Amino acid sequence: MTERIELRIHHVGFIAAALAVCSCVTIPTPESIEREMADRSKTRSMEKLSTGSDTERAETARNLKYTKDLTAEEKVSALRKALKDPHGPVRANAAGSLNHIGEEPAARAAIPDLHAMLANPYSAAALNAVGALHRMDESPETLLPAARAVWQRPDIEPEDKVFAAALMGSLGAKAEEVAPTLVDGLRNNNDESRKRAYNRLRTMKPLPANSIPNFVQALESKENRTVKLAALLINQGFRPAPKEFLPAATAALARGDGDLNENLLTLLSSAKADAADSVSAITTLLHKQPLVTRNERVKGVSALGSIGVESDEVVDALLHVAQSDPDAQVRLVAMMTASRFTENTTQIRSFLESQAKGGATEEERNQAAGNLRMLDAMQQMKTQQ
User: Fold this and answer.
1) Does any domain span residue 317?
2) How many Cβ atoms sit within 10 Å of the Cβ of residue 175?
3) Are 200 and 234 in contact (CB under 8 A)?
4) Structure pTM?
């Protein structure tokens, strides 16, 4: 009995001792864990930015603007140091991050450092510094010469040259100065550079005449995306399309890319009679339907109407679409366009008479009857003349 009591006393003492030990251990709260993790993340970022490899420092400088663990002041302080890094991409990414946070009041502390970067031999770093200072409302009169000086460097990379031209445009440079470089940028393999060139060119209306040779080269590119971007810009910035574009645009029609051809047909349509040599390519395209898209067929029909060449080839193509296209609206457009050509009235009249009686839809039958009346009126006017 005595042993049993003593044993229990030992157990009680052990439990008490254990509880005493446990009472000395601090159990972390979720908030303290989060703070500790943030501190560790902050420390890792700072270490990578100062002692990491070239790649690690460049990546950290690029991503620091997104880091939530640092205050704006801490980011700016770290990025100012990174602007002096011996590795060019680190300097460029640091200036780019300062551009991203440039509207933060704390970022203005970096203005002297960014001004010192304007003549940096690493072109991307100098240009990002221009962009960052522009974001901080620095004077374009000061920044434009700096961007131009980088743009004029003989050894500048093509992507950096496009970037410089785009910056110059945003700083007030004339379109004649930068447009040729930007159009050449449409042929870059770098998607970001190509997008930057396209977006800046979209703001130029009308586009300057000195960019025409550069656009011709873009239309002659073997890459459909380049040709499409060039055609889109030409349709927005030149009205009508200059004659210089027509041979390359016509040759590109044969590629069979529906989305591309819609833009090329719009270009040819705007040239009107100047695009007469493109008629055969357009009629060939229309005879391929339904392999071409609906919008292609509508634009092809409209282009033939705008160009206005009256020939058996044109009438045959229009009547082919008007009779066999699977889309009723396309058939109507082709029928109305064909009715405007009066040299080949026998073939057109025969088609309209058959459609007025046996058209697939009531709208087509009514349209054919109306076109017949219009054709009669036009013939009567010719007779009276």
Assistant:
1) yes
2) 20
3) no
4) 0.80
